[in-house]
Structure formats: C-alpha cells, structure tokens
Amino acid sequence: MKKRFLISSVLFLLAGTVLAQSNNIGKSDAEAKKVLDAVSAKLKSYKGVQVSFTLQITNAAGKTEATKNGNLTMMGHKYHLVMAGQEIFCDGSNVWTYDKSTNEVTLTKYDPSSKTISPENIFTDFYDKDFLYKLNGDTRHGNKTLQEIELTPINKTKTFFKVYLLIDKSSKSIYSVKWLEKNGTKYTITANRLIGSGQFSEASFVFDKSKYPGVEEVDLRN
Predict the structure, then answer these.
(1) pTM for this one?
(2) Secondary structure of residue 121 in the 3-state scheme
(3) Who contacts 196 (Cβ-Cβ below 8 Å, separation ≥6)?
(4) What is the per-residue pLDDT across 147-156, written as a single tens digit (0 to 9) for each?
(5) CATH code where residue 50 lies
(6) Within a domain: 221
(7) Model confidence over 117-148: pLDDT tens digits?
(8) Sign (positive/negative) of CA torsion 178, 179, 180, 186?
C-alpha cells in the first residue's frame, strides 16, 4: 500500500499545470495568477506531454529517504507513469497500478475528486478551483531565474497542506514542485526534461495483460 500511495502521489506533480479559468475563490495573488496562466497557456498548446523527472522524499527530520527517477506520458486526463518498478495506466475511466515485484495489477475507478495527488491536478485546471496562491519572488539556480509560487489548498481535508512551484521565468515551464504532507514528509519532483510535441495512441494509457505474462489482476471497482 505504501508503494501505491507513493506512485499515486507522484502524479500530482508531473502532468502539467493549470487552466486560466478564474473563479475568484479567496484572496489569491494577481501576479501569481499571471505566471500560472502563462504556464497553463503553454501546456494547453501541447497535444501530448512526456516528462522525465526525479523524485526526492524527505522525512519529518529532514533526512532524505529516497531518490527515484521516473517518466510520465500524458494526454489530457490520460496518463502512463513508470517509476521504481511500478507503472500506472489511466484511460480517463479506469486506473491500473502494476507492481513488478509481485506481478500484480490493481484496477480501480478513476476518481478526479480524490483527496490525494494525481496527474491532472497540476497539469490541468487545479489552481483556481482548489488553491489560494501567491508569488514569493525570484530565485537563481545556475543560469535559470525561477519564480516561486506558494499554493495552499482550500480543502483542509487534503493529505498535504502546502505546495511550492518553481517556474522557469524564461521558458514559462515548471522546473520543480514540492509538496508538504501533514505527517511531515516532503516530496520534491524536478522535471529533468519535458517534450510537448508527443502524439500517443489510446492504447498507450490502457494496461495490456498480454505484455505481462502471469499477471494477477485485482479488480476493486465494485
């Protein structure tokens, strides 16, 4: 279960971010919205996205527990995530979570209202609906100027209480995302490479049992 939570949580960060539809919830920062809208406009221009990333997990004591590399392919609400011996497929209706160590796949219904983090949360229309946000200013990383945006979830039942986005000021793309869980754990995902010119078949987002000989399927949809 811990592995499933980890890979599901990772999805929050990778898929992209934000549409530009404002619903005026709370008192968000207008300057932060300009930055988010610019990132959103760029991401919305992509038909399909591929991201290679690094995930770092830090415990409440500040010790790094794990560093993992992964890849995400995404098209709309459909995605395929590969990381640390696991894969997740989502076709917009169903989610298949495959664990290589046990050769088992768990099938669940796609739930966009889940309280945990998922792909389209950050690379679709999450920020105006689910967060208050503010621009904290610029930082430097190598030759990049990064803008930090702090997001606070409106729904206090979420498992996390704060999210920090670092946006490349020049390219208008996400450099990294860090979110803080209520139990003190910190997750940071850094996008190593993003390709926005991909076009993928529908089959890319469906688990194909024929490619996993002997796999055991556990259907939890009912």
Answers:
(1) 0.77
(2) helix
(3) 42, 43, 45, 46, 48, 49
(4) 999 989 888 8
(5) 2.50.20.10
(6) no
(7) 554 455 544 566 678 889 999 999 999 999 99
(8) negative
